[in-house]
Fold this sequence. Notes:
Low-confidence stretches: none
Order of helices and strands: EHEHEHEEEHEHEEEEHEE
Oligomer: single chain
Number of helices: 6
Number of domains: 1
Radius of gyration: 17 Å
Amino acid sequence: MSEYRILFIGDVVGRPGRNALHRGLPRLMNEHRPLFVIVNGENAAGGVGITSEIAEEFYRYGADAITLGNHAFNKREIHGYLDSGKPIVRPANMPPSVPGSGWTVVEKGRVALAVANVCGRVYMDSYDDPFACADRLVETIGTPHFFLDFHAEATSEKIAMGWHLDGRATAVVGTHTHVTTADERILPGGTAYITDVGMTGPRDSVLGVDRKIILERFRTTLTAKFEVAHEPGVISGVLVSVQEDSGRATNISRVKLEDHA
Length: 261
């Protein structure tokens, strides 16, 4: 039975994350030979949001699709770009009047892969019901090859989404919390799952932010402007193997590559 691979790269944070992706993605693509590369870029521009220029960089590096999250609209200039037809998706569970789309389809060979982004509601902004949104996506997309980036805070909500879509999605991967979890698995219905892929950003930081700023905030309780750390980045991602005929996943493994520049 023929299979293909999807390489998903976790939240790219600021310049260290972009540099790590630039230098490391070609190596990962050469090593793992994925058919599709998906990158979460919602923190790529200074730690919050993304610009059209950065999105185009990611496509040049090898990304086939870009997913976003709760910081999708932090850079106002991205609004028009989201309506340009490029394979970049903001959260699907937002009002229909919001620029862009919550899902896209990328095609290679005989495979048409639907890529979607949905935000959780627990400890997050006021998004529509992510579970009902996921149901609508399954009904609308019409392909068994369905990859969901579930951008959520609560571990329980992410796990619940995995079970909710088991057997109906190729993969449900969690983003947003920037820390890689060790619970990757294939659920009984053939859906690849992991609670959080982790971030692609400065290694010696606190979730991508300068650790001195965060330590001072914890010690004093005083607010401070967050700044992306300058340390070298690390790529965090997952590699998913998928049956070409059924769209069911057969394996998921964590991927990590440090940038030594």
